Automatic annotation (TrEMBL):
InterPro entries assigned: BTB/POZ_dom, Gal_Oxase/kelch_b-propeller, Kelch-typ_b-propeller, Kelch_1, SKP1/BTB/POZ_sf
Entry-linked Gene3D superfamilies: Kelch-type beta propeller (2.120.10.80), Potassium Channel Kv1.1, Chain A (3.30.710.10)
PROSITE patterns tied to this protein: BTB
Organism classification: Eukaryota, Sar, Alveolata, Ciliophora, Intramacronucleata
Domain BTB residues, every copy: 438-512
Protein name, per record: BTB domain-containing protein
Keywords: Kelch repeat, Repeat
Signal peptide region: none
UniProt entry tagged with the keyword Repeat: yes
Top-level lineage group: Eukaryota
């Protein structure tokens, strides 16, 4: 693990505008009812070039049936837009010499938002959850420098701020923490509270109405949890990967892993390849089970613009994750600290930061498929230069909130529209039970009929393909009876509907755990491998002492290998509790092969545990 010492112990490691003197003078405020004074909103709109009415430069030709506008209002004096009218009154348009006619992203400052906004702040966290942005904590601006622990939610569709009711104990105020979404819960780790670097894990459980947030803090048993600030956290499947940051003494480059099922820390984890240097205030983005690390600061005097990624998928039988520094094309952003990044499809968008001399407001992209950097040209009301802000993506828009420059912090929101949101899933879903184009109907035993399309079914599911294209009787029928559906049968009507929905949209709505189990069974029957993996992932998140044997049995019967491995590991770690429960007999539930494997692994785990305990006792005695 690489460590770069700071100038002072207990420093918040937070360049460019934080010092130990400021840390001493920083006020810590807990979430409570206090009078707030908010700065007046900046009402400046998008600037529009003023042209007098006599400068329209419109030329009309009756002989050629065209109308030409010299485009001093469009781009430059040399650009001309010609609209050509056809004889039938319709028109075609063409652009002559219009530089870069491709649409550019357009910034908009979100003004007149409903509700009470958060105070100006930096070093906060912002987490995307559908159309909502959840803001937590940070350091207040406008000279107060209070460290906060409040929660605000921005409804981006209604353009409305919500201050939700807090259920549970409000956590310590903090800045420089991380926040990651896991299912319907935001997991907050670490940060700086004005006096020390924090090591706790705080869970914000979001409620469907979004007017309440349930908060609780995890205290792992018999473990030393890592204290970190200005680090990054990334969640892949059931694990949270913590990289870098500071502990108050050093700039770090170690990797820690928190298991979201067992609630246990692991690490520092040994990896292969050349790891990034120790750093803080960098960016981390997950794509294809890889964690991409960009920029940050390795000490108080330098900024970085290097790019690394950690491949978390084992390769060639190795259990170690591998660091890579890829060869890239294009011109990367200048070295900077506190640039924020977020993933949009297969591109990472990076905005702003601090380069050691000035605050930035440029927008760059990194194409993960071609490994190519690009700088985006944008229009509109661009956010002022800043760092320690947040950048989030929702429905085709980027949202920039907060941050600071050399003079002040912000609480404004800017958004930039990148592209229209995809309607593919919605359009495909609308085809189910569509009378116009459907050519096959499934008749379920409870009388329900589902109209579908042979081409879609055959292209997405091998079982349906064989059913509809072979010599089977069903291939010649317009109505096909599904006889294994109904009370006491293998599948319910709701499960079959979920299977059809998945085939059309590549998605499924798991209303409850029983639906997940039912879909796993059905995915095995219809050989839908991806759906089965989705079900395995969902079930692996809810393993407990009470259900691990049932889930292990389920994974055995329906060939769910990943779920089986996770259940076995869980059962081994809790071997005594799981195998000695009185309400069920594992010998009646599990196959002989699984029982033998469980006992062998359990005995090995117990032996290693006893050896470790004995060694600890010997060290204690000496």
């Amino acid at each position: 693990m690489e460590k770069s010492p700071t100038k002072e112990n207990n420093s918040p490691n937070s360049h460019p505008d934080y010092s130990m003197e400021e840390a001493k003078n920083t006020q810590v405020v807990r979430n409570q009812s206090t009078e707030r004074v908010y700065p007046s909103q900046d009402r400046t709109g998008v600037q529009v070039s003023n042209h007098s009415s006599d400068n329209s430069d419109i030329e009309e030709s009756s002989s050629t049936n065209t109308l030409t506008i010299n485009s001093s209002r469009v781009s430059s004096a040399s650009d001309r837009v010609t609209i050509c009218f056809s004889d039938n009154g319709n028109f075609d348009s063409k652009i002559d010499h219009l530089e870069d006619a491709e649409a550019k992203p357009f910034w908009r400052k979100m003004e007149d938002l409903e509700g009470l906004p958060p105070t100006s702040r930096n070093c906060h966290s912002a987490t995307s959850y559908g159309k909502y942005l959840i803001i937590f904590g940070g350091r207040e601006g406008d000279g107060s420098k209070k460290i906060l622990n409040d929660v605000f939610i921005l409804n981006t569709s209604d353009e409305k701020w919500i201050e939700p009711e807090i259920i549970g104990e409000t956590p310590n105020p903090r800045m420089g923490h991380t926040a990651q979404l896991y299912n319907h819960t935001i997991i907050i780790h670490g940060g700086w509270d004005g006096f020390k670097v924090l090591d706790d894990l705080v869970f914000l459980e979001l409620q469907p109405t979004m007017d309440k947030v349930k908060i609780w803090t995890l205290v792992p048993k018999n473990q030393t949890t890592p204290a970190r600030q200005f680090h990054t956290s990334s969640i892949i499947e059931n694990k949270m990967y913590v990289f870098g940051g500071g502990d108050g003494k050093y700039w770090l480059n170690d990797l820690l892993v928190f298991n979201l099922i067992s609630y246990e820390w692991e690490g520092p984890v040994e990896t292969k390849g050349r790891a990034p240097s120790g750093r803080l205030q960098h960016a981390a983005i997950v794509y294809d089970k890889k964690i991409f690390i960009f920029g940050g600061e390795p000490d108080r005097y330098r900024q970085l613009n290097d790019l690394f990624y950690l491949d978390t998928k084992p390769i060639n039988g190795s259990s170690k994750m591998i660091w890579h520094q890829p060869d890239t094309e294009g011109i990367p952003p200048t070295p900077r600290v506190s640039a924020t990044g977020c993933l949009v499809d297969s591109e990472i968008y990076f905005f702003g930061g601090f380069d050691g001399h000035k605050w930035l407001n440029d927008l760059h992209t990194f194409d993960l498929k071609t490994m190519t950097w690009s700088k985006k040209t944008t229009f509109g009301h661009k956010p002022s230069p800043r760092c320690r802000h947040s950048t989030n993506h929702s429905n085709g828009n980027l949202y920039i909130f907060g941050g600071n420059d050399c003079d002040k912090s912000f609480n404004n929101v800017h958004t930039i529209h990148l592209y229209p949101p995809s309607t593919l899933k919605k359009d495909m879903k609308s085809l189910i039970n569509d009378d116009l184009f459907s050519d096959v109907t499934f008749v379920l035993e409870d009388g329900v009929k589902i109209k579908a399309h042979r081409a879609i079914l055959a292209s997405r599911c091998e079982v349906f393909k064989k059913m509809l294209t072979s010599e089977m009787q069903e291939s010649r029928k317009n109505e096909i009876e599904i006889k294994d559906i109904g009370p006491g049968k293998d599948m319910s009507s709701d499960t079959f509907k979920a299977i059809i929905l998945y085939i059309y949209t590549d998605d499924v709505n798991f209303e409850d755990l029983q639906m997940v189990v039912n879909c796993l069974i059905a995915s095995d029957k219809y050989d839908l491998i991806r759906l089965k993996k989705m079900c395995e992932l969902e079930l692996s998140k809810v393993i407990t002492h009470d259900n691990v044997i049932d889930l292990l049995h389920l994974s055995d019967v329906y060939n769910a290998s990943e779920l089986r491995d996770i259940c076995l590991d869980y059962a081994v770690k809790h071997f005594d509790i799981v195998t000695k429960r009185k309400d069920y007999d594992i010998f009646q539930k599990l196959s002989k092969k699984t029982i033998v494997e469980l006992c062998i692994k359990g005995a090995g785990f117990a032996r290693r545990f006893n050896q470790g305990s004995q060694k600890l006792q010997e060290n204690h005695d000496t």
